[in-house]
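Quick one, probably user error.
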């Protein structure tokens, strides 16, 4: 009997302790953003959690396409998606998911950006490159460039859009092939019609060995390659270059995808993605001004908390900061 009582007391204590642990557990809000937002979101997360100690914001960065695929393809329980291309949300998420609802049916645009060329003091011709001659510098045989994977990351396919627009708008025939196209086998060729220009990307986008082009899955890996001297110049967003303390050269407004007034110029260029999985959602990425957007998936486990964090996040981006994309 005494032994039974001791066991009962132990079980009661265990229950009380366990109950206390449960009540002290934090509510986890899972946020999957574009990699270009990792720096500002780290600050925003810290500020939010200081105000809400019962909330644990967990951030996992991906390229924008990969961020959405965490929900649409992998069916992970994500509370908030934040991407660097607002058009990806309707294109990829406005369709029915396993729960019978669309993955989402709304999004909130909140920031803008522009493409730049990031470089370091050790980059070839670092003291010579300017906004006026950047495309001529990149055309030189001894200059190595890098960009992120266009089938995973918005900055990747935007690099192709930028180079097509540069060839057209800067009156530089053959520029795309010299800087990018000739580094692949077979060559990537710009198709030109009266309506505009386009490039079709293969399923496997792999530069030839010892070519001037390097590709990484995300910009964080690309910038590591830049800082280690593996490449001379990286196509990335202006906010990222500033946030990482890198030197950068601005591109002309007619090619940098950063000016709303040039929207009718940007849409001259289109990139067609080769992966079969894009067939049902549209595989074309048309040139347009860069706009960031956020949405909460329809099956988000912590919708209410995600809405609260989204409101806080939008206010933070409206105020801005070092490494933040410009507010709309």
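Nope, works fine. Designed sequence:
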């Amino acid at each position: 009997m005494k032994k039974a009582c001791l066991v009962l007391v132990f079980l009661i204590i265990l229950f009380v302790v366990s109950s206390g642990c449960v009540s002290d557990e934090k509510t986890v809000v899972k946020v999957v953003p574009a990699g270009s937002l990792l720096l500002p979101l780290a600050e925003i997360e810290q500020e939010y959690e200081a105000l809400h100690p019962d909330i644990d914001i967990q951030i996992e960065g991906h390229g924008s396409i990969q961020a959405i695929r965490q929900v649409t393809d992998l069916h992970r329980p994500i509370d908030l998606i934040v991407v660097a291309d607002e058009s990806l949300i309707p294109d990829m998420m406005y369709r029915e998911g396993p729960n019978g609802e669309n993955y989402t049916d709304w999004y909130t645009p909140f920031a803008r950006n522009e493409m730049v060329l990031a470089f370091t003091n050790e980059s070839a011709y670092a003291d010579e490159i300017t906004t006026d001659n950047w495309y001529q510098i990149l055309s030189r045989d001894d200059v190595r460039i890098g960009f992120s994977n266009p089938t995973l990351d918005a900055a990747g396919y935007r690099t192709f859009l930028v180079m097509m627009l540069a060839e057209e708008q800067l009156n530089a025939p053959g520029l795309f092939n010299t800087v990018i196209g000739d580094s692949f086998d077979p060559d990537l060729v710009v198709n030109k019609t009266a309506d505009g220009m386009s490039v079709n990307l293969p399923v496997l986008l792999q530069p030839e060995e010892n070519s001037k082009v390097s590709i990484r899955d995300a910009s964080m890996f690309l910038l590591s390659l830049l800082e280690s001297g593996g490449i001379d110049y990286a196509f990335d967003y202006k906010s990222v270059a500033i946030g990482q303390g890198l030197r950068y050269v601005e591109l002309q407004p007619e090619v940098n995808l950063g000016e709303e007034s040039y929207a009718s110029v940007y849409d001259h260029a289109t990139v067609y993605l080769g992966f079969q999985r894009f067939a049902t959602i549209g595989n074309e990425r048309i040139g347009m001004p860069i706009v960031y957007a956020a949405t909460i998936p329809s099956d988000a486990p912590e919708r209410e908390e995600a809405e609260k964090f989204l409101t806080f996040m939008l206010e933070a981006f409206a105020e801005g900061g070092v490494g933040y994309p410009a507010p709309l």
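The two ends are 73 Å apart (CA to CA).
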